[in-house]
Design a protein that fits this description.
With 175 residues, the chain is mainly α. The chain is built from 10 helices and no strands. It starts with a helix and ends with a helix.
């Protein structure tokens, strides 16, 4: 399969699944998808983001060798929401290595507090940061404060996820 050609063919769930199914069991093909994603142009990066997150959901260890590159890419100014959303989405499915946890935590808190970010990006960031800080009581308190402050302004995706995370935070704090 010519991954780039398939990505340009159409942008649909069916096409994203087709590409994800092709790369999910092959580190070599997955690397090709990563390279296409990082190289651009903008339209191809946007279209590669969805199958990338789907492949990681199905086979999380595939992303480990590429995580540093993905996080650096995520930090670039002016990246498309699809890149942020799908990168945050794929981070939900992996155990973030300790060397990246601080940077990912900071980025997630930044997304959570930025009301200009799309609700889905903020919701995925909430899940990612919660999984990282779950055993850190001070950071859990900070997360609770941010969520509670943001709830009155929250998009549905954020509000739904926030209710679940707040429930978990409450349960974890009573243990």
């Amino acid at each position: 399969m010519d991954i780039a050609r398939e990505l340009m063919r159409s942008h649909s769930r069916l096409q994203a699944n087709k590409v994800a199914d092709y790369v999910k069991d092959s580190p070599v093909q997955f690397k090709k998808l990563i390279d296409i994603y990082l190289a651009g142009p903008y339209r191809i990066t946007q279209r590669a983001a969805w199958p990338l997150s789907l492949a990681v959901e199905q086979n999380p260890p595939l992303v480990r060798p590429h995580l540093g590159k993905l996080l650096r890419f995520l930090g670039k100014p002016g990246i498309h929401d699809a890149v942020k959303r799908n990168t945050m989405r794929l981070l939900q499915y992996i155990d973030i290595p300790s060397r990246y946890r601080g940077d990912v935590t900071d980025l997630c808190f930044q997304y959570l507090q930025d009301r200009k970010e799309a609700g889905a990006i903020r919701a995925f960031a909430m899940t990612v940061v919660f999984s990282i800080i779950r055993d850190e009581p001070d950071l859990c308190k900070e997360l609770r404060i941010i969520i509670e402050d943001e709830m009155p302004y929250a998009a549905p995706a954020f509000a739904s996820r926030a209710k679940r995370i707040l429930k978990e935070l409450t349960r974890d704090s009573t243990r």
